[in-house]
Design a protein that fits this description.
With 549 residues, this protein is an alpha/beta fold. It folds into three domains: 188 residues, Rossmann fold (3-Layer(aba) Sandwich), CATH 3.40.50; 152 residues, 3-Layer(aba) Sandwich (Rossmann fold); 167 residues, Thiamin diphosphate (ThDP)-binding fold, Pyr/PP domains (Rossmann fold). Helix content is 39%, strand content 17%. The protein contains 23 helices and 20 strands. The chain has a six-stranded parallel sheet, with helices on both faces. The protein has a six-stranded parallel sheet with strand order 11-10-9-12-13-14, with helices on both faces. The protein is globular, with a radius of gyration of 24 Å. The N and C termini lie far apart (70 Å). 52% of the residues are buried.
Length: 549
């Protein structure tokens, strides 16, 4: 009896369906067409982005705002290379992405043929792993492995490179079921990619540090969000009265108006968070890495560091494991033992320090100050999901926004590419169809990925794009003023952004005075349709730059 078979590309789509994948963000090309053909009859919706960089950023925005894996695809050569910016962005912030690239047929690989390039070599430094598959059976095997890595291991992009002829090969239908080989794969994966079970001795050691502490502090990173540990962390904080600070991507893991939340730690952090970080005796760091920005707020203390990535450890007690698992084990160890030292004296010390981000925003001057404009955007946005692009405006958003819910403020902090905001809003909107999305982007960053207005318009997504237009690359201009005698290469002669939006059939308005921004954003949100607001601000107003370049 002949074994039932199906194309490798069809097997891929069926496996992705079984994993609950809802959207694939991509841009088609010759070498990836077998996968597109397989999607025609699938429940998975393909989201046609206008550029592959946009596809990766959209998948990133989907993942950050949903907690699920984002999926993006491209064709070979230039298509695959265009993904690189978005993949690097996700890698730096540990965002789980499944990245699939088409490739030339196997008999043309490595021969410098049309669009042949070593994309695995390019992506290897910015992915958890990259798989260059050699045949259809291996392709399915590696897809399953990639999905298990993304589900159970440390987060970040995983890449599959798929030659066109491999995707057209047949595989037995039995590959859709878990086999003994899959079980062996999982066992191998646990040994090579996943952390072992957290050792009770390590947890006991952490408890000893915390029980002897008079000034404990918890530092929460994005790993708390990826682990789904928000509620257990909140119970830990409230039960034992331990103050909590966050890194940028974890803002909102505990509402920033919660009495035990001190806000962000480090560069641009609050006085309260940085006072606590510099004066605590024990720091419990959960799912974060100690970037050069974060360590500015940390003094001489004992550190308990919990992370899935053992390469980032900085602690006196370093625990390689899942944050949720650790918190559950920690609480279990604590219960039935003596209580922690009272933290009330420590909390009173912290109380004297501000939890606000110091910035004046009530200017009524003309030309309008960017601080005033951004404060109006934030106030009008209310519970909208806010996406912050890179540029001069970024700092104002950071300092003016109080984050009360996790993943309600998205920013590509580790890499910080200009042009992230608009395409990321596509993924965030599809992940949160009942929410309004507000993008804050500079005139420079907007023009790097503005073609995704076409995607927003086609899908009729309720996204409000607020362009903070200072007619320059503002931060670079400030650096040139400080260190290069003002030799500018940053002045921008911009197009008419309103007419540009209207060309995409998107409603748009231009505002330039205090009060008009708030009203315009409110009106735009009421439409529940794509909308663009150009906000003209003072081109000479800068931010306070970091002490070192």
């Amino acid at each position: 009896m002949k074994t039932r078979e199906l194309r490798c590309a069809d097997a891929f789509i069926k496996i992705l369906e079984s994993e609950g994948v809802e959207f694939i963000f991509g841009h088609p090309g010759e070498q990836i067409l077998p996968l597109y053909d397989a999607m025609r009859t699938s429940k998975i919706k393909h989201v046609l982005m206008r550029h592959e960089q946009g596809a990766a950023h959209a998948a990133d925005g989907y993942a950050r705002s949903s907690g699920k894996v984002g999926v993006c695809i491209s064709t070979a050569g230039p298509g695959a290379m265009n993904l690189v910016m978005g993949v690097a962005t996700a890698y730096k912030d540990s965002v789980p992405l499944l990245v699939m690239t088409g490739d030339v047929p196997r008999d043309l690989k490595g021969k410098n043929t049309f669009q042949d390039v070593n994309i695995c070599g390019v992506l290897r430094p910015i992915t958890l792993e990259t798989f260059d598959v050699k045949n259809s059976k291996e392709a399915v095997f590696k897809l399953k492995k990639a999905l298990k890595m993304l589900k159970y291991g440390k987060t970040g992009p995983v890449h599959l490179n798929l030659p066109k002829d491999v995707m057209l090969e047949n595989v037995p239908a039995s590959v859709l079921q878990d086999t003994d080989e899959d079980a062996f794969c999982m066992k191998s994966l646990i040994q090579t990619h996943l952390p072992s079970e957290i050792d009770d001795k390590d947890v006991s050691h952490a408890v000893e540090f915390l029980e002897g502490s008079e000034r404990p502090l918890i530092l929460a990173g994005a790993g708390v969000l990826w682990a789904g540990a928000q509620e257990p962390l909140k119970r830990l904080v409230e039960t034992y009265r331990i103050p909590l600070a966050t890194t940028y991507p974890a803002r909102g893991v505990l509402p920033e108006d919660h009495p035990l939340c001190l806000g962000m730690l480090g560069l641009r952090g609050t006085d309260a968070a940085n006072f606590a970080g510099r004066n605590c005796d024990v720091l419990l760091a959960l799912g974060c890495r100690f970037s050069e920005r974060t360590i500015k707020g940390i003094g001489n203390c004992s550190i308990i560091h919990v992370n899935l990535d053992e390469n980032v450890f900085e602690g006196d007690v370093s625990i390689n494991g899942d944050v949720l698992n650790f918190i559950n084990k920690l609480v279990s160890k604590i219960e039935g033992t003596r209580k922690f030292e009272s933290t009330e004296k420590w909390l009173r010390e912290i109380q004297g320090h501000s939890r606000s981000y110091h910035v004046k925003a009530d200017y009524s001057d003309l030309p309008m100050k960017p601080q005033r404009a951004i404060k109006e955007v934030i106030d009008a946005s209310e519970d909208s999901l806010l996406i912050n692009d890179a540029g001069t405006h970024t700092t104002w958003v950071t300092l003016l926004k109080t984050v009360k819910k996790p993943a309600s403020l998205l920013f590509s902090g580790g890499f910080g590419p200009m042009g992230y905001g608009v395409p990321a809003s596509v993924g965030a909107s599809l992940a949160n169809p009942d929410k309004n999305i507000v993008v804050v982007v500079g005139d420079g960053g907007f023009q790097m990925t503005l073609q995704e207005l076409a995607t927003i318009a086609t899908l009729n997504l309720p996204i409000v794009v607020c362009i903070i237009n200072n007619s320059s690359l503002g931060i670079i201009k400030q650096w040139q003023d400080l260190y290069y005698e003002g030799r500018y290469e940053v002045e921008l002669e911009n197009p008419d952004f309103v007419k540009l939006a209207e060309a995409y059939n998107i409603n748009a308005v231009k505002v330039d005075s205090p009060g008009t921004v708030f009203r315009s954003v409110k009106n735009a949100l009421k439409t529940r349709k794509p909308y663009l607001i150009e906000v003209v601000v003072d081109k000479e107003e800068g931010i306070t730059l970091p002490e070192n370049k």
